[in-house]
Amino acid sequence: MQKAVDLVVAGAGPGGLYAAREALKHGLTVHVFDKKSVIGVPVKCGEYFPVRSEMGRLLPSAEEYMHVFDVPPDAVDNNCKALRVISPKGKEYEFSFEAYILNRTILEQKVAEEVEKLGGTVQLQTVVDLFARNGDLYVGPNAKEAVEAKVVIAADGFPSKVARSAGILTDAYTTPNNVAINYEYLMTDLAVDQQVTEMYMGMKFAPGGYGWIIPKGGRSANVGVGIRTSYSGRNDGRSYLKYFLNDSELTRSKLEGGKSGPMIADVLPVDGPFSTTYSSRVMAVGDAGGMVMPTNGGGIATAMISGEIAGGVAADFVQKGTPLSEYQRKWAQVMGKEMRVSTKLRRLADHFMGNDFLFHLLLGALGTQGIKDVITCKAPGALKPFVS
Predict the structure, then answer these.
(1) Closest CA to 86 of 349, 371, 350
(2) Could you give the 3-state DSSP secondary structure of residue 203?
């Protein structure tokens, strides 16, 4: 007989684990699948995570969920005090913005332990899909080994197999302009400022995206580039990352002598949440639902929040018959405005990103405060008529 539970969660990243934990607290039976061999390994992320006070300003309607930013101290590798944005021509714009640089492996393993202590089960090394049979819903590596579920949460990253099978993810979203491909090293022996995260703009190393140096403490940093093939014309992120490390006049001296670990690569949705993030019995959270802020690429916080919302709605669906449309209503209430503004700003910036000189001029016109507004999903004064 196949296993049957109230909720199956596909994916044990922040979104999936926070969803599972919340559903368990409401009394559901929960089974979590993940393709990794070890929870939180490898880390495919810059691990940048704004502190609670910053997120309170960024998402003022999310007060109910601010507790997700109280992460365990041992899951924090570094504390950054500022952001510095560097134009394609080397002009620097720096402003105060406090963030933790996480150790996501520790964080996710701690939450996974909580899930298991609450009675949930976590099954690793399993790539899953969604199956339907005689009106029943199953999730697993194949129909025979699948687990039956009353409701399903897709948290399996982007592009999500489960969300696609549920009809939530469509080809209309997965265009080259809406998807960033990221390449990153964890580097050591670096003489970079450990208090400042840097974002670099330039077509030579990050066409359609940006490069980053995110300091993790102890002379280490996550160093990477994100590109969009609609701007690059080719999927060759390794060469762009190599240029960023070794040849760019903006970064070469800072990164000289650094040692690189294994390169990681990932894809990220950058056109905001999907128009519909649920079906009759499936919800998509985090990257699997497009829950990434397009003007900064941040997705950990939004995954946690959307996961908690989905976990609660899953409980209401099973116990009260609440339709899953409540999930979309709730996340839209909490962060919909900011996601919408961020998406419109990214689309507006797209008109300039293909030309380094024009993008340099745009950043100059925005100034430090305008750049901070854009990165924190707010419309600068002059742009409000275009993105409201």
Answers:
(1) 371
(2) coil
What is the enclosing helix (H) or strand (E) of 183? strand 179-188
Residue 313 has pLDDT above 70, yes or no: yes
**Share of the chain residues as helix, strand and coil, in percent rounded to the nearest 5:** 40, 25, 35
Q: Which residues lie below 8 Å from residue 153, measured CB to CB, with a gap of 6+?
A: 7, 8, 9, 10, 16, 19, 20, 282, 283, 284, 285, 307, 310, 311, 314
Cα 16 to Cα 11, 303, 313, distances in angstroms: 5, 8, 14
Task: Please tell me what DSSP assigns to residue 82.
Answer: E
pLDDT, tens digit, 9 for 90 and up, residues 89-148: 999 999 999 999 999 999 999 999 999 999 999 999 999 999 999 999 999 999 999 999
A 10 A CB-CB count for 99 gives 22
State the number of CA atoms in the 13 A half-sphere of 63 facing the CB: 2
pLDDT by residue (tens digit) across 252-292? 999 999 999 999 999 999 999 999 999 999 999 999 999 99
**Which residue ranges form the domains of the chain, and what is each CATH number?**
4-71+104-174+270-342 (3.50.50.60), 78-99+176-268+355-379 (3.30.9.10)
Pairing label, strands 121-123, 30-33: parallel
Looking at 200-324, list the stretches that DSSP marks H as alpha helix, in order from N- to C-terminal side. Answer: 229-232, 237-246, 252-255, 300-320
Q: Taking every pair of C-alpha atoms in the chain, what is the biggest distance, in angstroms?
A: 65
Q: Are 18 and 306 in contact (CB under 8 A)?
A: no
SS3 190: coil
Q: Report the alpha-carbon distance of residue 267 to residue 275 in Å, rounded.
A: 19
Beta bridge partners of 148: 4, 138
